[in-house]
Amino acid sequence: TMDVYFGWRHLSQVVGNKRMRMTSSFQWLLSTFILLYLMNEVNSQKKGALRDLKCVTNNLQEWDCSWKAPLGAGRGTVYEVCIEDRPRSCYRLEKTNIKIAALSPGDHEIRINSLHDLQSSMSKFILNERNVSLVPDTPKILNLSADFSTSTLHLTWNDKGSLFPYHSNVIWEIKILRKESMELVKLATYNTTLSGKDAVRHWSWTSDMPLECATHHVGIRRYIDCPHFSGRKEWSDWSPMKNISWTPDSQTKVFPQDKVILVGSDITFCCVSQEKVLLAQIGHKNCPLIQLDGGNVAIEIHNISVSANSGTNVVFTTEDNMFGTVVFAGYPPDSPQKLNCETHDLKEIICSWNPGRPTALVGPRNTSYTLFESFSGKYVKFKRVEALTNESYQLLFQMLPNQEMYNFTLNARNPLGRSASTILVNITERVSPHAPTSFKVKDINSTAVTLSWHLPGNFAKIYLLCEIEINKANSIQESRNVTVKGVENSSYLVAVDKLNPYTVYTFRIRCSTETFWKWSKWSNERKHLTTEAIPSKGPDTWREWSSDGKNLIIYWKPLPINEANGKILSYNVSCSSNEETQSLSEIPDPQHKAEIQLDKNDYIISVVAKNSVGSSPPSKIASMEIPNDDLKVEQAVGIGKKILLTWHHNPNMTCDYVIKWCNSSRSDPCLMDWKKVPSNTTETIIESDQFRPGIRYNFFLYGCRNQGYQLLRSITGYIEELAPIVAPNFTVEDTSADSILVKWEDIPVEELRGFLRGYLFYFEKGERDTSKMRGLESGRSDIKVKNITDISQKTLRIADLQGKTSYHLVLRAYTDGGMGPEKSMFVVTKENSVGLIIAILIPVGVAVLVGIVTSILCYRKREWIKETFYPDIPNPENCKALQFQKSVCEGSSALKTLEMNPCTPNNVEVLETRSTVPKIEDTEIMSPVAERPEGHSEAEPGNHVAVSYCPPIIEEELPDPAVDEAGGTAQVIYIDVQSMYQPQAKPEEEQDSDPVAGAGYKPQMRLPINSAAEATAVGDDVDKTAGYRPQANVNTWHLVSPDSPRSTDSNSEIVSFGSPCSINSRQFLIPPKDEDSPKSNGGGWSFTNFFQNKPND
Amino acid sequence: MSQREGSLEDPQADDSVSLLPHLEAKIRQTHSLARLLTKYAEQLLQEYVQHQGDPFGLPGFSPPRLPVAGLSAPAPGHAGLPLPERLRLDAAALAALPPLLDVVRRHQAELNPRVPRLLRRLEDAARQARALGAAVETVLAALGAAARGPWHEPSAATAAAAAAASAAGVFPAKVLGLRVCGLYSEWVSRTEGDLSQLVPEGPA
Known about the structure:
heterodimer; A: 1097 residues; mainly beta; five-stranded mixed β-sheet; elongated; disordered N terminus; B: 204 residues; mainly alpha; cell membrane (chain A); Ig-like_fold (chain A); transmembrane (chain A); oncostatin-M receptor activity (chain A)
């Protein structure tokens, strides 16, 4: 029965354990078995059998088995429990449980005989370890403490490991509840392994909420996973709860205080307050309140941003108070970057690094650094400095004796974390020496010095590589590297050779190690003058014979510094011939020439330079000068400050060529400088700072032949040509009526400033003060130019001039450098008397002839004339003919009162052929100023001059060209004969005189009349005048010379004499006063001018 | 009875023209110093607030005016006290301020080490408060008023109390600094006002 029972029980347990995994298809089978089991139970109780033998253990060594008493069994029932396979293992007891030693694995039969009221019943059970449950004892919390500053709970308990086999695994489950409402905030598991002994276990937990703000409760239970126990293992019960709460002991009301957290993390702040908290804010942002027990509140901050240096303020505000805390959100230290360790002196190691990303934490929260050297185990700490973000940090580490390898670890740490960087260095290869000090230079000889310096450091075991920089004036910088063995006393010495004597050098030095790492900084510079040596060469020598040919002057140049090798104190000059040697006394240095009286024998001159050390090799030069008959002076012009001289190779010249030069204005012996070039040279460039533009220099090329010099070429030249600074002096040698002879002088060479290329001669009509030769180059047509390119020409005759005319003459010289200044002169040509006579006679003859012809015609046509001009009443006031005059002259051909055709016989036509272009006497230079403008009346095609009848009106000095044109081609010009004999008046005076007052023609009636008033009257209303009037305004008549500009302007070639309407005008009209008569600008008048077309006419 | 009207200790009871020239010059000099420091104190307060972070300096932020050990705020009835008494209080407050300002400077040196101008202003303020206090005491002595009372002694306890307050936390230290700077400004301004009544021409 028991077997069946246990079998069923076991089965039910199995079913119970695995029922969750059963499939639905077996559910009907399970129901059947349960039913059968219940029926068996009922039957058993009816029979008084024991049931429900259960065994549990809490230590695996002892089993506590219990059973349920049968129905009816009560107090006084005795149970006899026998373990069948264990000897003497029957126990009598009165309770329903028994503690037995753990049985070995396998089935064990247990018989329990119950005795009650002399009735007994026996039950058999099969007991197996698999049926035993392991339920550990409830653990006890030894201690629960809190670190409020870190919001951490610390829990300790005893694991009771001695009760269980060694290496049993234990799972601890810890629950943390918060607030009075016991909200579960944490359920953690903690695994341990038992050691066979009792051990106190620790567990810590950090709360996200400050522990001060709410009570926290903690409980623990365990589960022992003993691998050798095959029974069922169960969790122990929860330990009694322990709690942590904060007792206010200070003013602090807000938690956590001054916490440092990682940027981006979450944090909860709470405020312990008896007052009602109204507002919570972080920075300037308000936060929602979370209510805790009592009046406490909390706020949660998610993903906090980086704080300023002074932190982020969290403030809780009550009705009348304010509480706050500060949180510092930053970063853990970045790995130290660019960690580098080196030494300046092999005594102290300097490690520098860059802190990397800023932590945003300063002050006591700033990163601290520790430099640890692993081989020696020594370390140094970095003293906190509030350096700027990107500054490099440095730490000094004292070097250890006999240690070259160093393994440094730089640890960085701040409240948020730590980082490290490492570097392994052989410090002898990381030497960056200090700048050398006490740098000195000492002489060894004229070409060598020693350099000494001090380099602090312990370099005894290594070699130093030093760079010496050598600077010399006007020379390329030189660098030399030297390797020196390191010494303990830090003093170093090297020799520097291959220097130049008597030369100022500037030295400086820097050092590194042979295993180069870095150069030191440069030492200070030291200037040093090397000592003197004997001059390496003799001076460059030349000689000149004095002007009288008796003395030979020896010149020499000072030796350049690299050849003098010292300060030249004096020179020794000697001359030797085959017979004797003559030596002069010592010549002190500043003097570089000597004069020796010599005969014409051949001498060799020797010059030696001496300094404090010794004498130079002698420079020798022959005194003899070989004549050269085939010599001509050439010209040359330089470029810039240089002049190029070339010559043909002359095989006879065995030694060098010499070019000497001098200012041409200096007297002989002239020598500015000379230059020697090798005999195989055929050209050289002469360059000197002494050369000046506009100065003429003479260059002489000498060839050296058998120790004698022969002048090969003589060249005159300029470095740069300039324009002459003076004008040539010129005078008028002769003057005639139509020509002037001009003569000029040479310009001195000093004032010429270039090779003379010619002269420009300008002339024009004009008088002093009124005509200025302005704008010579501006193309004025009234200026004639002669370009005289034959520089040997010193005179010029200017022909074809007008008589008794003032001419303005200008002469200037020019070179390739430009035009020189002008020199001007005014000359008046003489009067031409023959021409004057002809000029008088011909017009008179013509006038007479015209008069005769006119008289004849008038006589023959007298009836027609009478009808036409004097119909019946010769009353001029009724004569309409008086109305035509002005309008006709103004070009109104529509008026028929006076027809021009009847006057045709009065035309006089003069023909002549002229050049259309003004003549330029010298064709080499075509000056535009000689051109006459087109459109001028004289340039009209045909070149004929018509002296024709014109209606009797003359408008002189017509200001309006339109009126001038309207005047047509015929005008009458009244000539003041007397003015021909007047002294030449100035044009200005002419302009000032009143032309009206000087009117030549007077009407036959009403004389005299106030001319001015009459002019107005006539001009306004001719009809109002009484008697006969000329048909024009006589006040406007001017006597104009044909060659005057004004006559030119008014077509002076068209000349008429008298008016056919003026019956009494067969005479020259003479003005009453000379000064009232119009004058010509030209001041003179000649017959030839009248008929010839002069350029200025 | 109004102190200004009757007290013999009140220099204003005597006409200001009775002041000796050198005393008058000293008063003017002290008054000028107080006026200058008033401006500096305002600048210090602004600079201090600027570097404490929000909500310091925001409108509406007014932490409680907690008492500072060894230094009280000017009493509301300060203006009603006799002038020498007022000057004595001024001198006492000015003497108490330097150690407090030093505490604030040390705290700010850890909190804002990269704001040298604020640190320099705090250092200057301590020195200037000391100088102004000494000048006021000199004026008081010249006026024949007792300069120092037992409360005048620069108290190490004051500084210790302030340091302890700073150690309580960064936020309380910030508030303490704000309070000290505010008190400095108030006392310097009050001193300037009190001295202005001694200046012959009246308030500047």
